[in-house]
Amino acid sequence: MSTPGVTPLGKIMKDKGRHSDYEQFDYGVLKEKGLPQGISKLDDSFKGPQNIDPSKLDYSDSSYITTSQPCRYDANGNATGVEGETTECLIRGSIKRIIASTPGIGSPPPRPPSIKYRIVDTHNKGLGVFATEDIAAGELILAERPIMIVPANMPSLRGKELAGMSSSQVKQVELADSEVIAASAVDRLQPHRKEAFFKLANSHLHDGSGPIIGRIRTNGFGQDWVGKSDVQDMYCIVCDEGSRLNHSCSPNSQQKFDVRTFSMQFRAVRPIKKGEEITYSYCDVHEVASVRAQKLVRYDVVCDCKACANPTTSDPNRLKAQEWIQRMKSCRFADFSLPTSTTVSLLLTGLRLFESEGLESMLTFGQILFTLMKTYAAKGDVENTQVYARRYNKWLLASMGDCFEEDDVENAFGLVASARLVQGMKGMWTSGGARKAKKAGKS
Ligand SMILES: [Zn+2]
User: Fold this and answer.
1) What does pTM read for this prediction?
2) Which CATH number fits domain 9-299: 2.40.110.10, 3.40.920.10, 2.170.270.10, 3.40.50.450?
3) pLDDT for 92-111, tens place per residue?
4) How far does the centroid of ligand 1 lie from the alpha carbon of residue 247, in Å?
């Protein structure tokens, strides 16, 4: 018997085996819509609980629960004592424990010092977010409490009922059942949040997705909660304003979910000019245009960014970016087997490639910045070590949502001190060599 108010969904999901990633949640277009003959709509008893005890932590790892995470602060971070923007969560017991045991959970979300964006009609791709002022790299653009968090994949609860069905019919059942399950979170939304949710775009109108799952699939940000590839830990985070950011293959912003403040935060990965559209990527940006186009079909996106408009120029660069991913994985430049001047020159070439393609959001870009800082330190080039320590620190902020204080950057990575040491040693060598040369001249 299951715990009252707890859906035994997880157990069934376990039986389904492992899925590689969030992108597996792609059913394509189904020939038949609705439930196959003889299968009735999921019973209400499968829905999540309506009221759980917020202080109770020991829900089973293999069970899903619905729970609310209220925000009791105003826009200035002052405590209001009332529930403001609440996030509805459909999560497993293990994730609830992670959330509840996070130090400082429920802290006020950070707010940008001023709002530098507006949401307007783009005329060709629905609403979009545009900068109303220049925005610096690393700057917080927008932070919001998500509308809801739901599993990225919700296989059917039917078990033996699915025996003998075709894969297409199983998908029909999964889509129909996940619509009912997700509704348990949507039903609990505050009225204004529910309204915001249903105002979101739905690009899954013709593939068998219901209005709820369609919106989740269109707008959800993938969140691998505990860093495992097990599909049970993959969630979709649906935002209100954040979900209005359109796609670009050269995105100028990066998003990160912060559990402590329970907020989705969007930061600039490079300087953004006033009037420029603020974008992030819905697919892997290192792929060539044709592969990206294929991945974007599910979002109903036909990308017209510079890289997609000029694949003959951009594709060779994206292939080079793929080489850089492998190169930085193998740490070829981190072992200093090459002369440092050669390493610096290669790294700067890589850096320019990523900048020219607008790929600053990639992990490899951060790795290049870090390795440059390290290599300049090994050369004893204090000035450039400082430059790249600051740039890497900003990249950390934009990508990870956290970084060292500006005053602390020099000490943070320990490399500026190393650069000074090497510089000092070089100086000693140079002055020692000069003395020797002087002596030789005298004799
Ligand atoms: Zn594009």
Assistant:
1) 0.82
2) 2.170.270.10
3) 777 888 888 889 888 888 98
4) 8
